[in-house]
Specification:
Order of helices and strands: HEEHHEEHEHEH
Distance between the termini: 36 Å
Helix content: 25-40%
Largest sheet: 4 strands, parallel
Structural class: alpha/beta
Number of helices: 6
Shape: globular
Strand order of the largest sheet: 3-2-5-6
């Protein structure tokens, strides 16, 4: 699929429903802002954005600082982070601090219809995220890929496991977190790998 076709489709989707597609159009590519490709150390890959109004802002799993209560998936991420590395639960759910350290917070699908998870699965975003993952794998060394959920784990075949660390787990959603996301210890495992390759670790 040509990305120009994806662009055309998404322009139509936002024209048809300008206030019911998330994130807002100017925020769709926020995951790539202020993070040059060479600065990326770790990729967290989710499925698609939060479908609740006011939640999605272009970074997978992140919300703006004023969002309360936190989405349940993000609460579970913070619970696993606390159990894994002993950090206190953050006061808000904005993950810009991770992005600013070289964490690419990417979803397999970058947009969603309000209240309809998975509603944009067939618009062409998968080809876009495939291209991002494949290019990072090919052009960089010693990255960590955290693939959360079945859709994200499908991307593993695009990643060169001989030079990158690939860690997969169920999605942190309440529907699946107890099937293996809790206890996965991805945060400490990621930093152990980065340190072993003489790369800066992530201050979670």
């Amino acid at each position: 699929m040509k990305f120009s076709e994806l662009e055309r489709r998404m322009a139509q989707v936002y024209r048809d429903n300008p206030h019911g597609v998330f994130p807002p159009m100017p925020l769709v590519f926020s995951a790539f802002h202020n993070i040059p490709p060479k600065a990326i150390r770790l990729v967290i890959l989710g499925q698609d954005p939060y479908p609740s109004r006011g939640h999605a802002h272009g970074l997978a799993f992140s919300v703006q600082p004023d969002v309360v209560p936190l989405p349940k998936s993000l609460k579970n991420i913070f619970k696993e982070l606390q159990d894994d590395v002993g950090l206190e639960i953050p006061l808000h759910g904005n993950l810009n601090r991770w992005r600013d350290q070289g964490v690419l917070l990417l979803n397999a699908v970058l947009t969603v219809q309000e209240g309809q998870p998975g509603s944009h699965n067939d618009l062409g975003w998968e080809a876009f995220s495939d291209a991002v993952i494949h290019r990072l794998s090919r052009e960089q060394d010693h990255l960590v890929f955290l693939l959360w959920g079945a859709k994200a784990q499908q991307k593993s075949e695009l990643i060169d496991a001989t030079k990158h660390l690939i860690l997969g787990a169920p999605h942190p959603s309440p529907l699946s977190a107890y099937r293996g996301f809790f206890g996965c210890r991805h945060f400490s495992k990621a930093n152990e790998f980065l340190a072993s390759k003489q790369r800066p670790t992530i201050a979670w």
